[in-house]
Design a protein that fits this description.
Layout: H1 9-23, H2 28-39, H3 45-55, H4 62-85, E1 90-91, E2 94-95, H5 97-122, H6 127-153, H7 158-185, H8 188-212, H9 225-228, H10 234-240, H11 245-257, H12 262-274, H13 277-296, H14 303-317
Helix pairs in contact: 1-4, 3-4, 3-7, 3-14, 4-5, 4-6, 4-7, 6-7, 7-8, 8-13, 8-14, 10-12, 10-13, 11-12, 13-14
């Protein structure tokens, strides 16, 4: 499944210019770091969701571009801070900002980007869009902290897992779709429907990410990495809740105490596969995907709606 970039050919060019302008600084070090970040941006899924959610209802506006820039700024800032938290030397196959400029500068650049995002909205009176996305930032922080809290005890049920990923991952995509829709409609009902569409898509996105940890193909991160980091993902949670007591105890012991031993981690992965964790998580991912598509299909059919459907299918069918 390909990304529907053909529907946003001109808009993405304009977005690139506006985004670079939004993050530029007169401070030489800041400007050098932001240029490094801009050159190594990923697939720009979130700005595409903003722009398509706007274009679904009317031509993309200046407010739509600002919303897309704010989403990308917030996402980038959280990734930069994550690299410090995770002591990560790489990001998307390149040296991370943290690896090149160390913790102090990296934290400050993340703070700088957050401030630039706030000012971008405030200076243009985009108060509703700022409110939508500020709520996402709060939820993302709550999701990260809840995950840290639960990882210590390795006691996590499925409902808590959904709460974590709804806040940590899905909230930003939900807010991206809501902000895009608001930028061209100023309609609360439409905004809320697109927010739910983005949330369900974000839930499917994170479960797909969880499933990558059990894939054998080259997917850009080491197989078993989540287990090594003691992250309880949906395939693992299902397996832990459906194995016999001795197997569960052994799995928990390995995750807590032997998570750096490759053969031990591989044994845990085998148990997850054997006890239906992969199958169950895949079914849940498709259920969230279908809920997202049902919401989207309540709007009139047009090429942009089809483009958003393609985005959802890309999320669940992607290979990395």
């Amino acid at each position: 499944m390909q990304l529907p970039t053909h529907l946003l050919k001109d808009e993405l060019k304009t977005f690139e210019i506006k985004f670079r302008h939004a993050v530029q600084s007169r401070v030489a070090l800041l400007d050098r770091i932001t240029r490094y970040i801009v050159k190594r941006k990923g697939k720009q899924l979130r700005p595409m969701f903003v722009l398509l959610s706007a274009k679904l209802f009317a031509p993309v506006s200046d407010a739509s571009y600002r919303a897309a820039s704010l989403v990308e700024i917030l996402h980038t800032a959280t990734l930069i801070h994550d690299d410090v938290v995770d002591d990560a030397a790489e990001r998307r196959g390149f040296f991370s900002v943290y690896a090149l400029w160390k913790a102090k500068a990296t934290v400050l650049i993340g703070d700088y980007l957050l401030a630039k995002g706030l000012l971008l909205s405030l200076d243009n009176n985009d108060h509703k869009i700022l409110s939508i996305l500020s709520d996402a930032v709060r939820k993302m922080s709550e999701g990260e902290l809840l995950q840290i809290e639960k990882a210590r005890s390795l006691n996590l049920n499925e409902d808590v897992y959904y709460e974590i990923i709804r806040n940590k991952t899905a909230s930003l995509l939900a807010s991206a779709c809501a902000a895009g829709a608001w930028s061209t409609t100023q309609d609360e009902n439409v905004c809320e429907k697109m927010k739910k569409f983005g949330e369900h898509t974000g839930m499917a996105f994170q479960i797909k990410d969880d499933l990558f940890d059990y894939a054998s193909a080259n997917i850009g991160k080491p197989t078993g990495n989540d287990i090594k980091e003691k992250k309880l993902t949906l395939p693992l949670i299902y397996a832990l809740n459906n194995v016999d007591s001795p197997t569960r105890k052994k799995m928990v012991y390995i995750i807590k105490n032997e998570n750096t031993k490759k053969e031990k981690v591989n044994w845990v992965i085998e148990q997850v596969e054997k006890n239906g964790g992969i199958k169950y998580a895949t079914e849940k991912m498709f259920a969230f995907r279908d809920e997202a598509l049902d919401i989207l299909r309540s709007f009139p059919e047009n090429p942009v709606r089809q483009g958003l459907e393609d985005m959802v299918l890309f999320v669940t069918d992607r290979k990395y």
